[in-house]
Amino acid sequence: MSAGAAKISVTVAEVTPVNELVTRFRFVRRDGGPMPTFSGGAHTVVEMNDQNRVRRNPYSIMSDPADREGYSISIRRDDSGRGGSLFMHRQVRPGMEMVISNPVNLFALDLRARKHLLLAGGIGITPFLAQIKQLSAMNGNFELHYCVRTPSLASYADELMANYRPRVHLYHDDRGELIDLPALLEGQPLGTHVYVCGPKGMIGWVRKTTAALGWPRESVHHEEFLAPASGKPFEVTLARSNKVIRVGEHQSLLEAIEAAGVEAPYLCRGGACGQCETDVLEYDGTFLHKDHWLTPSQCASGAKIMPCVSRFEGKTLVLDR
Amino acid sequence: MLEGSIPSRPVYGVLEMRPGRLHLMVADAEGAQAILDLAASAFPDFFAGAHIIYLPKKSGDKFVARLEQLAPAQLYVGPSYEAALPRLRRILAGAHMGLQIYLAGTEGLMGQAMLEATQAGIPHSAIQTEHRGSTARRVQCVHCKGVTEDVTHDPFQCAHCGLHLFVRDHYSRRIAAFQGVRIDAEDPGNIPESVERFR
User: Fold this and answer.
1) Does the distance separating the beta carbons of B122 and A114 come in below 8 Å?
2) Which residue, A35, A146, A209, B115, is most buried by CB atoms nearer than 10 A?
3) Beta strands B99-105; B147-151: pairing state
4) How many angstroms separate the CA atoms of A132 and A40, rounded?
């Protein structure tokens, strides 16, 4: 079995600029068949053959879960990122053949909820676009609060306002508009679940405020894909494969393992899903744990590492891989 | 403290204060003592945001005066769970997120109140429980589906269909009851002596 979710060979059907920073891409199957079904909040991992390296980045699927003709994703250009979004914006053209993964959902709606309170910041709107289509098809009770920088960067805000107006609330940073979060949360009926997708600070703010107001942890959902951090290069011994590899400055440990031809499990590549958890056999140095998966005590134990986002500094690192 | 045997068998904790707008407490008999113990470590105004539903059962008025002294926003003392149910449902229907639920006393009471709370949308894992008093069980007959309350003996005779039932640890949160299965299904009439397993 190969690593990650099953792969789908696709053709890029459309490349549509949404605004100055965001572009939408639509993928259809090369064999003309229907796409696998998914639920709102799912992501797909897009493989990019960028010169002599393979990038694999997760993006939320924003199209209607009932639409099996294709998947749409929207990508915000990050000029100071590792290069995945720049590749998509600059190199990808309609008609190009690419490979994406089957959908994986780490940010699903809890359908037991009486009401879904959706909080989006910037490009964090994408999973909610699919969830809203799913919810409106089943007559679900939802409310979207969407924070954007400026009206011109408010991706899909017009469409959302036109289709779901009373349920959609927009907040513009440049006009000093801010969600009154404590008041919003306190007014929610019993059985409400809150979902937040956006910048790290926003997710932290929502988690802290809900905890202080006595919301159950199980009723608060968040999604944040971490981009693997760059850092000092380091050397790793892969004991089972009997290889010594070097992790480059702008490469993740997982990418370096894959580049050496060793298959390693993964799903989200963003420190959230836990799939790539790897046993450490020996080490002399310091772990730079960045993931949301390992508990503080697991991090302290030195026995585990999540190679998709975490790094290492020191003399020796031997992994069971 | 009651111990877990199989994963479905509920385990109970010790009530602790949590942040919240409204603190709903439901207790029966000796469960009152769990609320009084919680009060010993609670900050002064805590009970000003508390609504207590208390069913004394056999403990009579042993705990009622002390519960009154906590000065909760509301204290209801009632004769049975069925009598308290409309009130419980009314509170849940009008409540907002931030409601905290504290259940104390017998398993039957905690299970039924938890069922109401989960149906109102609260995750079961967010509901606090503390077992006090009787270990008598609420058991559903898997054959006739009738529920017998306060089962102390095993096997026991179903109050509805009369079959002799073996009391399992298999518990249903959806029904808020343990499972009772006919003990002489394979050898009709061979019914072991009933022993008091739950007091």
Assistant:
1) no
2) A146
3) unpaired
4) 8
Q: Minimal Cα distance from A191: which residue of B?
A: B121
A291 part of a folded domain: yes
SS3 B13: coil
- Same structural domain for residues A240 and A211? no
Residue with tokens 């069922």: B115
The pLDDT of residue B7 is 87
- pTM of the prediction? 0.87
Confidence of residue B4 (pLDDT cuts 50, 70, 90): low
Instruction: Tally the domains of chain B.
Output: 2
Residue B1 lies in a domain: no
Mutate to test the interface with A, among B88, B91, B97, B124 (most CBs of A within 10 A): B97
Flag whether B151 is in a domain. yes
Domain of A24: which CATH number? 2.40.30.10
**B95: Cβ contacts below 8 Å, ≥ 6 apart:** A189, A190, B22, B24, B120
**How much is the ipTM here?**
0.86
**Among B131, B153, B179, residue at a domain's last position:** B131
- Asked if A72 and A99 sit in the same domain, the reply is yes
CB contact under 8 A, B98 and A186: yes
Contacts of B19 in chain A (CB under 8 A): 211-214
The answer to whether the CB atoms of A211 and B19 lie below 8 A apart is yes
